[in-house]
Design brief:
By secondary structure, this protein is mostly helical. It has one domain (2-145): Cytochrome c/b562 (Four Helix Bundle (Hemerythrin (Met), subunit A)). It has helices at 2-24, 30-58, 61-75, 97-100, 102-122, 130-145. Helix 1 packs antiparallel against helix 2 (30-58), helix 3 (61-75) runs antiparallel to helix 5 and helix 5 runs antiparallel to helix 6 (130-145).
Amino acid sequence: MKNIFKLVLTGAIALTMTLGLVHAQGQVSPEEQEYVYRDSLFRVISYKASRLPAAKAAGDQAAFQEAAAEIAYLSEMITDGFQIQDNIPENSLALPSIWEDFEDFGEKAMVLRDAAQALADSGDMDDYDPRQFGGTNCGGCHRDYKQRAN
């Protein structure tokens, strides 16, 4: 839990700094704040997901379980970043389908949470396959709700 607190604190500091930079350039709209929030959250989730294969390769079960638990914790915050209907700024890869089927979008976030929590609880690194974990959980949502990057 101590590390989750550090993660949340670090994320809050990064978000505050980012919003401060945006604010220095002009008034920050709620849409901009929400976009920065979700972009920051997904970057942290992506970083933590990259720690899973690294911990597995090193045989570090504690680091593996910690990263998985943090992904589970962060996944519960995903829908918070999509509360403003059709908030798709210029640099966003979000698709309108998020809001068209928000219930499914939220369910997919919880599938990610549950999969990550199962890894954290079991600690069985042999059950972890990065292609399956990312493809099923991250990719399952990206296919329906995120534009492909050019």
